[in-house]
Amino acid sequence: MPSIIITGANRGLGLEFARQYAADDWRVFACCREPQQAKELHGLAKQHGNLTVHGVDVKNHKQIDALSGDLSSEKIDVIINNAGVYRDSIFR
Predict the structure, then answer these.
(1) N or C end of the chain: which has fewer CB within 10 A?
(2) What is the pLDDT of residues 44-84, one digit of tens each?
(3) d(CA 16, CA 75)
(4) Hey, which residues does 78 pair with through a beta bridge?
């Protein structure tokens, strides 16, 4: 079974990527900053045993390292780095 990591998987494009890859029988490691608030993502995980939810903030190197350790025994085929960072100064 091919596998994929998707960051920013709790909404929008990331959630849709997670939905479609899980439906296509990929092993999906769906990542988001606040997994406890990702209700739709957890709903997908209940529907698809091949999807797991992981908490990681892509700006936090310790969390990235922890995820790397958690998934060290997994073969990863694709990474979609969909997570975004908003900076206040961009919108001024």
Answers:
(1) C
(2) 999 999 999 999 999 899 999 999 999 999 999 999 999 87
(3) 22
(4) 4
Q: How far apart are CA 60 and CA 74, in angstroms?
A: 21
Q: Is the pLDDT of residue 6 over 60?
A: yes
Residue type for 12, please? Answer: G
Q: Which two tokens stand for residue 92?
A: 């001024």
Return the structure tokens found at 36: 């406890």
Structure tokens at 34: 């606040």
Looking at every residue in the chain, the average pLDDT score rounds to: 92
State the residue for tokens 């908003």: 86
CB atoms within 10 A of CB 33: 17
Residue 65 in 3-state DSSP?
helix
